[in-house]
Amino acid sequence: MSVLLKIQKDIENTSQATIRDFQLIREKSGVHVYRCIYNSVPAVVKYFDNKDDSREILNYRILARHNIPTIKALALGDASVVLEDITVSQDWRLGIAEDLADTCVAECLAHWYFRLHERGTTIPELDTLFFELDSITKENLHMLMQKIPEGEELFRHILTRYDKLKEIIYTPPFTLTYNDFYWTNLVVRKDKTAAKMFDYNLLGKGYRHSDFTNVCGSMSSDAATAFTNEYNSLYKEAHGHDRNEAHKVEAQINDIAAPLYALIVAFTQRENLPSWAMHVKNKVIDGSLLDKARLLL
Question: What is the dihedral of CA 232, 93, 31, 209, to 10 degrees?
Fold first, then answer.
């Protein structure tokens, strides 16, 4: 059965509306994205070949239930999600590269991330969601040792203290985290009064700090400062204190765990090591990651 027939059948099971006039936008790693007409309205439909990727459909449901702003989901099937087409919206536009240097957009994003994190701490589904650091298994650490033999001392240091690492990883409180920030996943109100992220395949549980580094690492320094200041202001207003100590604890864990996760993804999901992974690999080779591991463990 063709992908288009699968989409039509899936949507028919959940909606009385018709879906037609498909135009392929992209197709990669089992995720198919088309523009279409849904119930006589321009829309975008995503179809997932793989069950793991279809978790994005559940994530749309979770965000809607907890009143976290998303682009509008028009229909949710078992393997398909039909979304509003932002390119024809009167109020919203897709993100552009220049948004990464726009302090106004950064402040708007801080509000979206703050709401995601605040509401994400109490959702009942949190412990069942994707967690990046679950991929740091003994098996994957042995795999990294084979791929990067220059880092054997690092990987052996972690493996002999593996139980302690897992205990430390699970010590800070978790919340919903977006985990996939970039301007291509961003939508902005045309009057720049709001912004939000879409594409929720990597949405899961994690630390607030992880999203901070994910966002600020892509922004200009001015935009990153605007994001951080606005978020911290919102947090202090809501809680009566800052989260500097919590931020430091999460940062210390992330300094070890995030590079390990990045390398695991690079070696297990990519045919060739991407440029961003080479930067992380160099931290293994030059010993800087080992120094941090010794401090943590």
Answer: -10
